[in-house]
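G.,

No rush on this.
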Amino acid sequence: MNRIAAGEVIERPAAAVKELVENALDAGAKRVAIRIERGGLGLISIEDDGGGIPRDELPLAVERHATSKLVAETNGDVDLLNIYTMGFRGEALPSIGAVARLSIVSKARGSNDTWSVEVEGGALHPVRPSAWAALSEHGTRVEVRDLFFATPARLKFMKSERAEMMAVSDVVKRLAMARPDVAFLLEHDGRANLRLSAETDPENEGRRARLAAILGADFAPNCILLDQTRDTVRLSGFAGLPTFHRGTREHQHLFVNGRPVKDKLVVGAVRAAYQDLLARDRHPVAALFLDLPAGDVDVNVHPAKTEVRFRDAALVRGLIVGALSHALAGAGHRASTTTAQSALGAVRAYETPQPFLRPAMQNWALAEERAAAGDFMMPSGRVETMHSPGFANGMAPADLEAAIQVATRQDPEDARFFPLGAARAQIHETYIVAQTEDGIVIVDQHAAHERLVYERMKQMLANGGVRRQALLIPEVVELDPSEAEALAARAEELGQLGLVIEPFGPGAILVRETPALLGHIDAAGMLKDLADDIAELGEAHALKERLEEVCSSMACRGSVRAGRRLTGDEMNALLRQMEATPFSGQCNHGRPTYVELKLSDIEKLFGRR
């Protein structure tokens, strides 16, 4: 039976590491050392400074379904609804002992003696005294050797040692993110792969530092703080700026009451919050921490405890979407610093060869002669003032005029007042160069104005609703009865988005009106997409995304194009509008709208620092 349980709980070395480290954390450990050999198939050693295991409890620790982590009520029943520990099933140690050579050495807090017990292929050896040389005066060391030696068939399904070690590292990193107050050491074949010291402030800057140590140094300056509470549920953590993204969802982490879990509800919620800020194939980086009463979440739905079930999933999803949307809006025009780093990385200082230098000097001398003769003026560094029609095709004239007035009331020579600085030049009739207090900003005029127009169109949709067009002949769409029922239940929500539907018998939906923005649409195809969204994510994303795609396309066509010359006032007005508009740091496709270069970085390029 233990070998059957091992197949469910311990399917690879990473699963064994997860269970053993969770045991260490439940024991109150503040330092955990993990040593791995041959990807975990040769040796897994977990050593902690927790409370330890008393001598009389060591044999029980390796008995199946025996656990000290569930508290009995006054009537003798065990409360399985309010679970506060990481492990509670009592399956990990006996499962590991059934398929490997397991040894436990422990010294309980307050005890003068150290005891050990061994299990080999399910055979329990007697408890005996042992020596203790560990992290502290008390704690536990668990060693697992020759994993799956008792079940050779399972060894055939193991991947390479490198792949297994990467899985172990991923598990340890997730647990370390959840507990910044605990120090972690991970070694593989004698080399340290991960070394994390305990953080003194596990809630704020300490958590940010721990996340940056695991997710990368770029995460800390490119994330925004989350901390919101709704009813009895609190969401905290950090989420990356829209311009700080990755190609997969592997960098999105959820922790429920300190437990790393994976949940499709969170995937849908994060997607909803970033839906018009990123391209479809890009994903934000986030570490979200949910804290709620233990009775409101079921952690006992998976043998490996990697999935949970919320009592009020709608509340949790709404909190995640709302908190992310609010935080992203508060970030304003802020963009990722990695764009500037990429730009600096592309710049190289060249030693100019002499044959190239001579023509350049000759041309400059010729230019000086022509300037002296009055043929043309030398560049002054000032913004070229050119008359052109207003740049805001997609903006109200009053708003454009107001923005220009705001820009012209300030002294354009003083860039200290503006986060995005004062415009100094337009390059290739595409990019605006602005001087800030401590550097320069380069703005893609088309991408920036595209976001401004798009945000205005979104606001118009939110204030006036979506215009609808009635079908001359209502269309009947045949669906699966469960899909039709789910859509009918969302009829009011879909009506606000311009799609008017009603039930039409079992397994059928009648479409009466569609969003005017979408023009002629395939009603059957859209309803099927909406039904899939509701089944997978609990919300009808497809219609919202279609409407936003149309708005994005219209904003793109109605924005300042590359190659358009702008006056100095128009350029400064665009900068001021960006500073006042949420999400203006990226265009509708997720690309950055501007790059900021600090003066110190520029000085490094020229060897001044």
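When you get to it, here's the other one too:
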Amino acid sequence: MKKKIVDILQSFVAEPIEEKMVEIPAYAHLGDYALPCFPFAKKLRKSPILIAEEFAKKIKDEDIEKIEAMNGYVNIFMKRTKYTYSVLTTICKEVKQYGTFPSRDKGIVTIDMSSPNIAKPFSMGHLRSTVIGNSIAFILEKDGYQPVKINHLGDWGTQFGKLLVAYQLWGDEKKVQEAPIQTLLALYIRFHDEADKDDALNEQARAAFKSLEDGDPEALTLWEWFRRESLKEFQKIYDLLRVSFDSFQGEAYYNEKMEPIVEELQQKKLLIESEGALVVDVGEDLPPCLIKKSDGATLYATRDITAAIHRHQTYNFVKSLYVVGNEQSLHFAQFKKVLNKMGYEWADTLHHIPFGLILKNGKKLSTRKGKIILLEEVLHEAIQLALKTIEEKNPLLTNKKEVAEIVGVGAVIFSDLKQHRKHDIEFDLNKMLQTEGETGPYVQYTIARACSILRKIPFQDAFHVTEVNDYEWEIVKTLQQFLSIIQRAASEYDPSLVVKYAVNLAQTFNSFYGNIHILKDSTKLPYRIALVQSVVIVLEEALRLLGIQAPSEM
């Protein structure tokens, strides 16, 4: 409809009119769509009030009921019955394809996401990258792209030098075999405690990592063991979150691929020696990008530059996204600038998708200081709390454990994605699981409520719309907005827009449910069942785009 309005008016105005200029009024009495005429005043040399009156006379369409000019705005009211039938018919016909771009021809988008560090537990700190990246992948796929999810594991770097030294000094093979992640974490924390008193340990760690890079058999054997045990632990988390990946190529994968890139930098005369290390000058606004340390060891930047080149050669992506924290902004800007200086034009398609921290009592979580919240424990606690609520409210539910897992895990994901990704979020499990307010369980319960109606009266294809009341009309307008929400969420890489939309649709439906006797009027029943069916379809799809399931009963 926005496009129609723009097309009609474009013939009367020389300046281009954008669809985003057509607004959806905050109040229903001001119309279903509104066009502010203030931007045209200077060009047309008329007052916005006069322009609005002229435009109101010129806009003609069979889907429009009436048009009003008011205070410089053109307020447009749709023909409710015709519009409602069109929206509901489309949703019930297309089902999960509603809002989907007609083909996946926009190209491949690689998404660097999750990327936990080997030999450390999967903490709440890595939840954000995992669920934000997963949701962005679903949204981009819906918008016509082909996402490739890459788990760029932190399985290389000086941290392994620290762990190797800690294991050699204080390790116990039997304890590592019994509880690998917990034991390795304790060793890692102890190393930092001891290194604060004795800086020589840091030198030993750097030497140990250099021996690992050089292929020392003992160091490699330990590293492979740490990696193997860590992946087993990580997979438990990914199974609970229902997150999958197209690639697990971590930092170590690029170890043997880095030297040709360093040589390329040398050939292009980009490397500069600085205090024995090799750096690339990336401009006055950024510090130099460190490529090799003075001892010859590589760094994150070296591996990320190599990985970016390899990914472009492998996938020929149209975009490459890096879902990593706000604190990595400098690192990302540096290695992207290096790729630009190397002459890779596609470097401009690399985008950092930053996100804030998860805080506990307003404080940052830290693995090295032992201040972490283990994600697996959080998920299991959320599931148990959800199960307790189900036992209290619906003890006869047949698949209680399955529903509790869907609700508990969904609550954690929903809570994370609810805020704009750049914001820090405070961890509060009890708030996440509330069935009222802007929570995952609230949206899931709305779907279950709608499904209970459909179990009584299943949807049938044939229905007619003779009258649309205000509650129903608000639902229809909200359903229609789903397409633009997906497009905006895809362009802004912002799952929180889908969260807010899902909450809004759920609230709109619950207002309808609480004020209208849905099953009472038999003449309107087929149409209202189509309305309920459409709400279920769109809410389930909105949650799917967030990586969340929806039980039909709760």
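Residues 2-78 form a domain with the Gyrase A; domain 2 fold (CATH 3.30.1360.70). The longest strand covers residues 64-70.

Enjoy the weekend,
O.
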